[in-house]
Amino acid sequence: MVAVYHAAAALITRLLPRNRDRMLRTSDLAVARMTKSPEGVGETKAIRIASVKSAGGYTLRIRWVNGKTLAIDLQEPIHKFKRMHALRDKATFAQVSKGEGDHSVVWPGGIDMGADRLWEMTLEQNGRMDALEFLRWRWRHGLSLTEGAKALDLSRRQVAYYVSGERPVPRYVLLALKGWELERKELAA
Q: Are strands 111-114 and 49-54 parallel, antiparallel or unpaired?
């Protein structure tokens, strides 16, 4: 496994030579204050919901502030988690609404689900594992869009495209994520 990371780091060094020194200097980054980007994805991990409605069964149709409208099937968590069992009743499930601050969906009885988890599930269910991996990398390290862009020597707009699922994340960028993490671990040791 370590050999794979070293190979990724070597590839990153060749692909992103200008960024190598910056990645080595990077220390623990504080989460930036949240500001809305033109793409509708906040500087930090805040994902916001524009509207939500039941689409039949255990499916929600969510319009995100980035303009995308996607369906998400919640059958698995409804049947898996005890706190969501009340939603097995489809009439109760259909009473879904947008939560306060656009950061969740809520149902009667105090049941809610965060927008960030819903966005993760939406990306996964729509086959966007590349965007999901990129998003989780950012969240894992508490990186804003700007900080993520600087870490990878990409434009902030490109990072926003990746996070929003607007554009596919190239393989070399996914390798750069692993190399960046490896270099941080080596610096910490």
A: unpaired
Residue 45 per-residue DSSP state? S
* Cβ 48 vs Cβ 21: under 8 Å: no
Higher-pLDDT residue of 176 and 13 is 176
Quick one: tokens of 91? 């009439």
How many other CB atoms are found less than 10 A from the CB of residue 21?
9
| CA-to-CA separations, 189 to 29, 183, 185, 186, in angstroms, rounded | 17, 10, 6, 5
pLDDT tens per residue, range 106-129 = 999 899 999 999 999 998 998 999
Residue 173's nearest CA partner among 160, 154, 186 is 154
Distance between CA atoms of residues 138 and 31, nearest Å:
10
Q: Where are the domains of the chain?
A: 49-114
For 41-98, the pLDDT digits (tens) are 444 446 899 999 999 899 999 999 888 899 999 999 999 999 999 999 999 999 999 9
Query: What is the CATH class of 49-114?
Result: alpha beta
* 93 and 58 Cβ atoms separated by less than 8 Å: yes
| 144 has pLDDT over 60 | yes
Distances in Å between the Cα of 14 and the Cα atoms of 4, 19, 182 are 15, 10, 16
